[in-house]
Amino acid sequence: MNLNVDDLDARAFQLVPGPKSRYFQVDLKTGALCVRERIDREELCANFLTCSLNFEALVNHPLSLYRITVNVVDVNDHYPVFPVKAQMLNISESVQLGARFSLLSAFDADVGSLSVKNYKLTPNEHFSLDVNSGEKHIMSAELVLRKALDREKEPVIRLILTAFDGGKPPRSGSLQIMVSVLDINDNAPVFSSSLFKVRVTENAPPGTTIIKINATDVDEGLNGEIKYIFSTQGQENNLGPFLINAETGEIIVKGIVDFEDKAFHELRVEAHDKGLSPMTANCKVLVEIIDVNDNAPEMSITQLLMSLREDAKRGTAVALVTVSDKDGETNGKVSCRLIGELPFKLESNYKNYYSVVLDGQLDRENISQYNVTILATDEGNPPLFSAAGVHVHILDVNDNAPIFSKTKISVYVKENLPPGTLLYSLSAMDLDSNENAEISYSILEGKSAASSALSINSMTGQLYSLQSFNYEETKIFSFQVQAVDSGVPPLNSTVKINVFILDENDNIPIILPPYSDSGSVNNENIPYSAEAGYFVAKVRAVDADSGYNALLSYHITEPKGSNLFRIGTSTGEIRTKRRMSDNDLKTHSLIIAVSDHGEPSLSTTISIEIVVMENMDDVRPSLKQMSITNDNFINLNLYLLIAVVSVSIIFLLSLIALIAAKCYRTDGAFSISSAPVVTTHPDGSWSYSKSNQQYDVCFSSDTLKSDVVVFPSPFPPADAELIKGGDTFNRTQSLPSTGKVSTALVGMFLTAVF
Questions:
Q1: Which of 36-45, 374-383, 473-482 has the weakest average pLDDT?
Q2: In the chain, what are the domains?
Q3: pTM score, two decimals?
Q4: SS (H, E, C) 97-153
Q5: pLDDT higher than threshold 60 for residue 181
């Protein structure tokens, strides 16, 4: 290539892109041809001894094309590799010396002198290695047998064949060779002993294994598998009640073994292997029969009583027992006892005569019947026994009174339910049986009026109402129910029942003066110059119901009046939303709806006609009065604040005393207490709750012009039985206070505030 190094850059020397030129690059400053990426000769020329890469170079000015050939020289970068990790050879132990066995050849990806050049075998006493060079100089190896094989001494021979290449230093790879020596039948079975002795008790059941004899054969496969048989030479009539398992060598009882019939048996056993030319071994087995106590005691039982009253006295005889044993001397002596801890005992009468008598207190409610088992045991070795039983029923005595699950039951009933509604189902349990457990229910007569308001099904305990209840008249009443069994004499128990009447929303709100009832028109005047928030009027209403059924809210129902006026939902105060404009009407008719919070909600409406007065003289007296009121407002605030604080303290103290007294009167049944909780509502009202009592207080942010309403929550706790339309709903909390705050206290509080 006749090129000047200084001209390489100027003439734009470059290698023509191609699959072979990608391995190289030219330094245009020095003219050196450099390797750009790794070259793998085995990948490019795997099957060739020589390897070269041909590619072209291109220069301009003038355009010339040059051909470049790069010879790739192999390096020893690969190990010899066998196709598998291990080679298995099966060679019979009878094979002749000098026999050859081919081994797998190793492969080396390198070529020439760097390929596989030699094999080596680990030293051993049986084989040598013969290495040959075949076609294309491929090296192969063979095993040559130099010493006879014996499977019984060494069944598996493990060798390692190592292949080396011609590199410096050489690299190597290995192959594990496992030679399995195949067996021939050249060994006879051998017993562990020529004489076996065994003892077996008489009456051993058929199938009992008395001994397992064992012979071994060092051969393998069929040559080492052994078959056992009884030898019949000279003992055709001496095999007795035995047979032998041909595969396992177990000698098994097949008939009756009786010491009195024959005390000894002599058995001869042969062992044969299963080779083509079977080999045999013999042994002798002596069987000694041991006498045993083979007669168990026998019992005869005469039952005197099949059943006992649970109040039966100690010493009452239940059964007579007679025991006998056919054996003699020690094996015929018998002793008896009862099994388990029972309220009975066994008394000996005469020799082998016994009686079973009561020896404890009976309680049918705990155990209604007994299986009394008598065990008779002789004194043989080993002892034999027999057992027999006596079944005794326990008759009931009326010794348990009916039991209610609770000592006090709270039933919650909504008012206005129709007569005949199922209020509650009482249930008492009696541990006795039959007529002693048959229970009838009745309401005890007393000061309570429950007998006229309620009835009870004497058989089922279902409690029904005889009249409709009115929460506003009666809120709670108590009575007792008695449960009586039918025993003689009868036993009874009572339970106290508290019936709480729950309020229903059955009263509509009533408008208080100065406004009239629904249907009439009420008038109010306001000045034309009234500012936004000007107080127009206040609507007051009351509801005869309780709780949320009496919690009232106020709304303007006509949308045409809601753009100029607004009303406090909880206070009933009507105020202006904005100043008057010339476009506004001079007379505005508002329809105010007062609704309670019951379900469903009840409501009433009133109509208020508001007249806008343009003549200031007409409204001046009213404004003057307001001015006078404002002059004294500071003093009034002070007096009112003192009055509110004083009355509030008195009210809270009275309320606490009332709650404490009520909790004390209920004997702790409703005395569960917790920290008070105060909840503030978005409309300015708040509720005060403590444990099972809740009091709701409603007022607006402007307390000087607001009503205050205090009432207890009517909702029952969750552990009560809520009756609605004959259905019972279970709850799981504590009992609420159903009494309202004292009317005198509320009146005093409201009087002081207003």
A1: 36-45
A2: 7-71 (2.60.40.60), 86-182 (2.60.40.60), 190-290 (2.60.40.60), 298-395 (2.60.40.60), 403-502 (2.60.40.60), 510-631 (2.60.40.60), 640-753 (no CATH)
A3: 0.44
A4: CCCEEECCCCECCCCHHHCEEEEEECCCCCEEEEEEECHHHCEEEEEEECCCCCCCC
A5: yes
